[in-house]
Structures are given as structure tokens and as C-alpha cells.
Automatic annotation (TrEMBL):
The protein, known as: ZIP family metal transporter
Transmembrane segments: 6-29, 41-62, 68-89, 110-127, 178-198, 204-224, 236-255
Keywords, in A-Z order: Cell membrane, Membrane, Transmembrane, Transmembrane helix, Zinc
Family under the similarity heading: Belongs to the ZIP transporter (TC 2.A.5) family.
Subcellular location field: Cell membrane
Origin: domain of life: Bacteria
InterPro entries per the UniProt record, alphabetical: ZIP
Signal sequence segment: none
One of the Pfam families matching this protein, by short name: Zip
Membrane topology term: Multi-pass membrane protein
């Protein structure tokens, strides 16, 4: 049973990562995606991640901790630790906080900035994979599947953003697609580490679940939401977030 759970978890992590490539597919059929549509999609992604964090990581963390004040304190410590972990990575790993640069604002260093953005997406895919791996590693396959679906959904607009940024720098469709795919393949690595962490230290399950939740909350607040408010379409992005949250909540309850 353990082997089958690990196998299903690995498949789930690969699926979540491959969704990045699914998001990049439209570059073969269109030359441009408006800020309006991309901000709406990214808002949806933020809502999906937020719901997955709440219902598939934080709530199970408190439940596995036995409920009560001690469980809440342990979960809180895990959330804060996850946020601090991502903050340190954010500070010391070179990357750029941008999805697009408007053509009229592009500069000679725009290509290097695009690559710094790709590094940022790759770095932030790791805690997402970690969360999926932890979900499966907890032994609750339904939580793992819910997280894999949620992370997969939010990876779609990220893959599109990476591919479009590269197309703006005159990369071919094939190269842009392949690079977007590679950014998502970090997630299975994070997933394997997450499952191993649970298998090695089962008593630490509540803390590790909360750690993954804190890392994801940091990404949502520090990266995704600010990006959706940069181009004047914040209301569309906000409704996208609401719809994403509701859809992920329904999926979580249905699967659970």
C-alpha cells in the first residue's frame, strides 16, 4: 500500500509540473495574450493556490496535530517557517519580479530580466511540488490528488507567462515551450523530497504540512497578487481569485 501511495504521489507531482507545459501550448496558435486576460488567469491561479493551501494543508495540519491550541501553535510555527524559508530564497537567489515587459518599456537587458523571471518561476515551483509530495506522503491520497489538481491548475497561466516572455525575445515557439516545460519539472523533485520528509519523520507531519502552506502563502502574496495589480486590471484579477478559490474548494470537498 505504501509503494502504491508513493507511486500515485509521483504521478501526481509529475502531472502538476507538466501542467506548465499545457499552459504554454497557446503560443503555437497566437502571438499575443493581453494583460487583461493574463491577469485574470493569474488571479484564478492565486485563488486555486489559496484554497489548496487552506483546505489541503492548513486544516489537515491542525487535524493531524490533534486539534486544540497546541495543534494551532504548531501549525502557526510551520506556516511562519515556510514563509521565512521562501523569503530567504527570495532574497538571496537572483531573480526578477515580472511577468511581461511592455514593448515600449523594453531595454537592452530585457532578455536577462526574462531569464531572471524564469529562475523565479522555477524557484517558486519547488515549494508547490513540496506541498503535493507532503499531501501524498501524509497517507491521504485524496488530499494529495486535490493538491496536485490545484497546483496543476495554477501552473497553467505560469507556463503561458514564461512562454510569452520568451517569444517577446524572439525565441522560437518550440524553444519557448520546452523552457516552460522545464520550469515545471522542478515540482516532481520537490514532491519526492516532500514524500521522503514525511516517511522519515511521520511525527513531524503537522509541521511539514504547515511549512509547505507557509511557502505557498508567501508566493501568493509576494509574487502572484502584486503582478496581477500592475496593469489596471486588478478587479478582474480579484474576481479571478474568487472563482479560483471557489472551484478549488468544490474540488477539495468533492474529492475529500
Amino acid at each position: 500500500m505504501v509503494v502504491s501511495t508513493v507511486f500515485i504521489g509521483l504521478i501526481g507531482c509529475i502531472f502538476a509540473g507538466m501542467a506548465t507545459a499545457l499552459g504554454a501550448l497557446p503560443i503555437f496558435f497566437t502571438k499575443e495574450i493581453s494583460h487583461k486576460h493574463l491577469d485574470g488567469l493569474l488571479g484564478f491561479a492565486a485563488g486555486v493556490m489559496l484554497a489548496a493551501t487552506c483546505f489541503s494543508l492548513i486544516v489537515p495540519s491542525i487535524e493531524y496535530g490533534g486539534g486544540g491550541l497546541n495543534a494551532v501553535i504548531l501549525t502557526s510555527a510551520g506556516i511562519l517557517s515556510g514563509g521565512i524559508m521562501l523569503d530567504l530564497i527570495d532574497r538571496y537567489a537572483p531573480h526578477e519580479h515580472l511577468l511581461f515587459r511592455d514593448k515600449e518599456k523594453s531595454v537592452s537587458s530585457s532578455l536577462s530580466k526574462v531569464w531572471l523571471f524564469i529562475i523565479a518561476i522555477t524557484i517558486h515551483n519547488f515549494p508547490e511540488g513540496l506541498a503535493v509530495g507532503v499531501g501524498f506522503g501524509s497517507g491521504n491520497v485524496y488530499d494529495g490528488i486535490s493538491l496536485a489538481l490545484g497546483i496543476g491548475l495554477q501552473n497553467i497561466p505560469e507556463g503561458l507567462a514564461v512562454a510569452l516572455a520568451l517569444k517577446r525575445e524572439n525565441y522560437s515557439n518550440r524553444k519557448a515551450f520546452n523552457i516552460a516545460l522545464l520550469t515545471g519539472l522542478v515540482e516532481p523533485i520537490g514532491g519526492i523530497i516532500g514524500m521522503l520528509m514525511i516517511k522519515i519523520s511521520k511525527p513531524m507531519l503537522p509541521f511539514i504540512l504547515a511549512l509547505a502552506a507557509g511557502a505557498m502563502l508567501f508566493v501568493i502574496s509576494d509574487e502572484i497578487i502584486p503582478e496581477t495589480h500592475e496593469h489596471g486590471f486588478e478587479r478582474i484579477a480579484t474576481y479571478g481569485l474568487l472563482f479560483g478559490f471557489v472551484i478549488m474548494m468544490i474540488l477539495d470537498v468533492t474529492l475529500g
